[in-house]
Specification:
CATH class of the largest domain in chain A: Alpha Beta
Helix content of chain A: 25-40%
Strand order of the largest sheet of chain A: 4-12-11-10-7-5-6
Number of helices of chain A: 15
CATH architecture of the largest domain in chain A: 3-Layer(aba) Sandwich
Structural class of chain A: alpha/beta
CATH topology of the largest domain in chain A: Aspartate Aminotransferase, domain 2
GO molecular function (chains A, B): 4-aminobutyrate:2-oxoglutarate transaminase activity; pyridoxal phosphate binding
Organism (chains A, B): Candida maltosa (strain Xu316) (Yeast)
Number of domains of chain A: 2
Pfam families (chains A, B): Aminotran_3
Largest interface: A-B, 123 and 123 residues
Subunit structure (chains A, B): Homodimer and homotetramer.
CATH superfamily of the largest domain in chain A: Type I PLP-dependent aspartate aminotransferase-like (Major domain)
Oligomer: homodimer
Family (chains A, B): Belongs to the class-III pyridoxal-phosphate-dependent aminotransferase family.
Largest sheet of chain A: 7 strands, mixed
Number of strands of chain A: 17
Chain lengths: 470, 470
């Protein structure tokens, strides 16, 4: 039997959830918070000191198996000893108290910190630029794509014209050109202004926010189970690729880059085939647009490979790959040296990332490699998926369109309505599980990379127990 | 004599700079970095382990008096023991290894962490929202302003219309309305897309980046010395206020908020009077626009008050005040409860800030209060300014338009050209000082809050020594 990584990391991990069913302390702390901070999204106030491995504790003493993991962003379980060691290192203390303007005055350990991150870069990528969040990573990638797109037209080392230098100060072309990022309906890429303009999953993310008038293509909507709808789904790929091609050819604003998630995550765990992504790569090459793969949610192992798009064997590799969440640090990978802008201070800001968070990312990568956690996640995912398939047979109304087969623990399914889904998510706490949703009507599993068969058993039993009362 | 805070914090702080004049190791590390990361802005590779108090060391053994302080962002000196203590705390370890989705699952210490930040909030502000950088803080504030502006028209609790819910998914009005932030020529507010659209100081910040077509007003351009040009400068205030009033009345896109720095920092340390800012407050009230004060660079003590706009006695206080840099954490303060959006998940993202950085901010605030560092900075600034005035008499060509009198150590001056300024900044390293510029032709002093008379003496002597060779 494979050694249990969770037992190695977490000798005191709970054996099962504890549900005390009181939420008084959590409610009181949330109410207090509401006087000074937006508390409207708070589910509960956590006790991170008592959280351990795959279990999150709240301040009332409830201990939940956590398959949501801070919106898909805890990689190695709560209070992982390897990360605690990194957090206590001298390198970390310096990064915290002497926060550098990394672009101007990087520290002596910068090559080590960046090198550790690059050790787990996607295949074909060997350079990185650092940011602070998924939205930030995407917007930095947009900037890099716009710089590169214009440099291709202008010549990499060609100086700016006087007209560009003057017009840009008025936010006018040619210095501030009208260029677009093409993204997909149901995609999610963040909530700042440019990233928000590419996001297209729910109105609440965007209402009242001015936006760039950038186009949206359609992402394939497959019929499930996939093996029974091969021809139809292939036609769906072709239909969607044609839309992309048409938009790039005809859009009034030139499309500098196509932005896509390997699996649309927030938008409902919508999968598409390798052929679809290869088609996207070909279309971008044909038109001279860049290809940006947003791996903010899919990256770092959860899908059973380190980076989800590596399954697609894209040639050449994507121009930019953004990351955040499970890497606990943010930024983009790239390979073309000319993605680094021709002059200093173009891709720049005061901090250019956060070495403290980059150190954590390096430690995460190292642990993943050391314990082969991507392979383990693939195995555990297969184990879990098979059990969920059986549950789907037992409760077809509550586990529709099960998806994520052979995609590690990156699994989702759909309920018959948003109300049914919300009730399910909330009720799962009564059987000891913290679980999240995606789209309006779906459930998404986003456990850590140290989620094992024994945790899968507890999850499946809890779902069974709950649904047997429905 | 006042106790020396720097001696208390840094018993081993160097007594003077060390210039070894070799840069070989720094160059080698920078070259290595360039293979995987944009290294074009790197001045030198720092040795933060050996940096101490007001002195920054590089990997070659040079030790500079640092009056640039990571682009105005190191608050309490390198390796400050109080921050090291915060960095080693259990609370910090948890924040680093169990990074929460703060909007959904805040930790048990959230009220303490937020409370510590609010202890040093600007007068009249009692709530906060957290982000990750200055640009992020400003864009989050823009979103809050747009939400509030629309809520005033719609009614705070009025649900969205079906038309809004549908049109927003196409990035179209009314769901995604055309609304503007009015900012000022020579202002700097960050380099993401919306913040970049409000930034108007240098072309390099903006070239090739698509932008929102938001208007710019003119910021007063005073004649110096101020006491000799009172009438002219008053007229300049009036002229600029009229432009603001005209734009808000006539701009095709409604102006939801006016965004302004208390001192335009990156853009040249351009000061304006309390009357000018009071005029802005009045104009925004008259037209129902919000007032956002960008304290990213001016905040946290350097100007001799905790927040630079507190000198203006604005009534009512600004609607939003953004911060970052010296606070080491980012976000905005506010007071109107309806700045918190009517529904959950409007002002939201995965992490909603970073508790690790918020803990540092709280510790910074506490130390500032405990050691009265704002008052000390005001005193040291006056001492330094008087000495610089004498230098300006001695070298009028190299210290033109000296500004920042009675503004703590937030001091700047102008040289006769960009080339002369750049040569001065570079040459200052040969006399042991790390110093930065602003605008094309100016020098800005941005030392820490533990910069004292003895450091001011070394700085002034170094400038004198250098300029005597010109």
């Amino acid at each position: 039997m494979t050694q249990s990584i969770s037992s190695l990391y977490f000798p005191n991990e709970p054996k099962q959830p504890t549900v005390v069913s009181s939420h008084a302390k959590s409610q009181a702390a949330t109410d207090a918070l509401g006087k000074v901070f937006d508390n409207r999204g708070v589910y509960f106030v956590a006790d991170y000191d008592k959280s351990n491995g795959n279990y999150i504790a709240d301040v009332d003493g409830n201990v939940y198996l956590d398959v949501y993991a801070q919106i898909a962003s805890i990689p190695l379980g709560y209070n992982n000893p390897a990360l605690i060691e990194a957090a206590k290192s001298d390198k970390m203390i310096r990064a915290l108290v002497d926060r550098p303007a990394t672009g101007n005055f990087p520290g002596a350990d910068i090559n080590e910190i960046v090198g550790d991150i690059l050790k787990v870069a996607p295949k074909g990528q060997d350079k990185v630029w650092s940011g602070l969040s998924g939205a930030d990573a995407n917007e930095l990638a947009f900037k890099a794509a716009f710089f590169r797109y214009q440099a291709k037209k202008r010549g990499y080392l060609t100086p700016f014209t006087q007209e560009e230098l003057t017009s840009v100060m008025k936010n006018e072309a040619p210095g501030s050109p009208d260029l677009a990022i093409l993204s997909f309906e149901r995609g999610f890429h963040g909530r700042l202004f440019a990233s928000g303009s590419t996001t297209c999953s729910k109105p609440i993310h965007k209402l009242d926010v001015p936006s760039f008038k950038w186009p949206k293509a359609q992402f394939p909507a497959y019929k499930y189970p996939l093996e029974k709808h091969i021809e139809e789904n292939k036609k769906e790929d072709e239909r969607c690729l044609k839309i992309v091609d048409d938009i790039i050819q005809n859009n009034q604003i030139p499309v500098a880059a196509v932005l896509v998630e390997p699996i649309q995550s927030e938008g409902g765990d919508n999968h598409a085939s390798a052929e679809f992504f290869q088609g996207l790569r070909d279309i971008t090459l044909k038109h001279g647009s860049l290809l940006i793969i947003d791996e903010v949610q899919t990256g770092v192992g959860a899908t059973g490979v380190m980076w989800a798009h590596e399954r697609f064997n894209l040639q050449p590799p994507p121009d930019l790959v953004t990351f955040s969440k499970k890497f606990q640090s943010a930024g983009y990978f790239f390979h073309d040296p000319e993605i680094i802008p021709n002059f200093a201070y173009r891709q720049f800001n005061t901090w250019c990332g956060d070495p403290a968070r980059m150190i954590i990312a390096g430690a995460i990568g190292q642990e993943i490699v050391k314990h082969d956690l991507v392979k383990r996640t693939a195995e555990v995912g297969n184990y879990l998926y098979a059990k969920l398939e059986k549950l789907a047979e037992k409760y077809p109304k509550y586990l529709q369109d099960l998806r994520g087969k052979d995609r590690g623990t990156f699994i989702a399914w759909t309920l018959e309505s948003g109300e049914a889904r919300n009730k399910f998510l909330s009720d799962m706490k009564t059987v000891g599980v913290n679980i999240g949703g995606c789209a309006e009507d779906s459930v998404r599993l986003r456990p850590t990379l140290v989620f094992e068969e024994k945790h899968a058993d507890i999850l499946v039993e809890a779902i069974d127990k709950l649904l047997s009362t429905y």
